[in-house]
Amino acid sequence: MKNLELAKLFEHAAEVLALLEENAFKIIAYRKIARVLEELPDDIEKLAAANKLETIPGIGKSSADHILEYLRSGQIAEFEDLFSQIPAGVLQMMKIPTLGPKTASILWREGGITSIEQLKAGIDAGTLAELKLKGLGEKKLQKIRENLAHLETTAGRLRLGEAFQIATEIVAFLKTLPGVIHAQYCGSLRRGKETIGDIDIAVCIPNDNDDQSRDRKGATGTDSPHGRTLPVAAQIADAIRQSDFCGSVIQAGPTKTSFRTPPPTGIQVDVRIVPEESFGAALQYFTGSQAHNVKLREMAIKKGLKLNEWGVFKVIGNKEQQIAGDTEESVYAALGLPWIPPELREDHGELETRNLKLETLVALSDIRGDLHLHTTASDGTNSIDELIAEAKRRGYQYIAITDHSKSQFQANGLKVDRLIEHVKAIRAAAKEAEKSGILVLAGSEVDILADGSLDYEDEILTQLDWVVASPHTAFTQDTDAATQRLVRAVANPYVHVIGHPTGRKFPSRRGLEPDMSKVIFAAARNGTALEINANDERLDLRDVHVRMAVDAHVPICINTDAHALDNFNCMIYGILTARRGWASKGDVLNTRSLEEFKKWRKQRKEQAMW
Ligand code: DGT
Ligand code: CA
Ligand code: CA
Ligand code: ZN
After folding, report:
1. pLDDT > 90? residue 218
2. For a FRET experiment, which of 39, 238, 461, 601 has its CA 20 to 30 Å from that of 499?
């Protein structure tokens, strides 16, 4: 599908227009198109072929023409013209968190800066400060310098959701190839990390039964159970290189193939082809993390064993005898350990802790509801009824509809009169939904203002069934201010849960950097829940904060913050993050049964009345 490529192109055009201070309406229109394209469930090429482009919301005649031109020729002349007006380095600079088109324009036109390298050098040498450019004092420049570091740690990495989708497709393809028994992605993706450097995949083929030709580092070709006397591994490697997933080959060997996916993602994929008897050991090894593996290997050595990607071996004289490795379980068992879920494998105590609560670790199937959802009343794309229908389809027992509050004017946030009306509409729909056993809460995602006060008065909040309080602005405040802000919001008795507590976004925004131990302590004392926002641009709470919240017995909510039905699918990324923070089912509020969830709300309400 070309949907994402086109979305990126329109977003890029909007950025360039903003930098050139062109027509604001056009900028808004292009941003909207980018977003619509990103969330479009249908293939844009199919819609174009059916002459249906203009039925997509936000797309008019001229943008439809642009899209057709792109599908035909691979570029849009008007955009190319536009892009050529700005040095590529200046556009790169706009990827730095908090460095918007305005600042980029000043740095470029008045400071003569045309690349990130020049910017870095100019700040470090103090020459930029000397220029005294508008809005670019010493403090702001230092902030930019810090944010550059954030960019450098995320640059070249994909978001969890992006990598997840690509890897899932590749694995499905690999499983269709003759001779393939299993295929599984490993690495940071299997561990559910928030960004992914490259995708690692292990492919399982039949054992090589010809002992004399056994050379695991060479080709593993031999008689396969499929009755073909062909080098299975080499054939699979060929098929991979000829597939649509392969944009360019980085390294080609019979058992290891590395390639890059085609643009615009262009992520590296390392595929290893392994015989069945070693598949578990390969999974274990390539899932990592490296720190976990190093520790595991040390444990093996202490037991007089050898552990590598081919298995666990007993060393007898100068001979090695394989004692485990066909499954991951066998590898861990040989070392006297239970199988450890990939999300825990970070050498954060998972190998030392006794009584790891592995059976109760939260899972996607435990989720009973989603408590942060948007409709067309603010910036969502669905109606109340559509959200309810989706919740029903997923077997959820409860949801909360939480549109933006009044300060979010760019997201069409609701002024009080519109909120009251919206609440009425939700309650009417809720009555219907109740018949099919779904509890629909009329809520709001209320802004936490810079000082920690909320965007609606208490007397309004008390009329709502569910209050998510989230920061959306003032992300550059210092640690003390951010901590006080969040602690104050946590202490508000009308707030049920703090949404995306730090507000960070990949790759563009570092977000608040509060003292999370204080925020979590306050949440524990007030019985306020903290959200793991499951949108993979956020994953906020992040894993380390989840672990702190779990230790402090703070209830956690995993919410998708869906702005479109498709976004309900993000729940898995929130689950992975929760598991990385060692969260059990019992730690997560929205795993509770409807009755238990109602009890929690009731108790919270009684607390507020005190
Ligand atoms: P990434 O790709 O940066 O998001 O992170 P990973 O964890 O996927 O790292 P990657 O792709 O370099 O390697 C995949 C796994 O292979 C890694 O998690 C552990 C294993 N591995 C790689 N190199 C080494 C090594 O030198 N020693 C050990 N023990 N394991 C390694
Ligand atoms: Ca990797
Ligand atoms: Ca790799
Ligand atoms: Zn939201």
Report:
1. no
2. 39
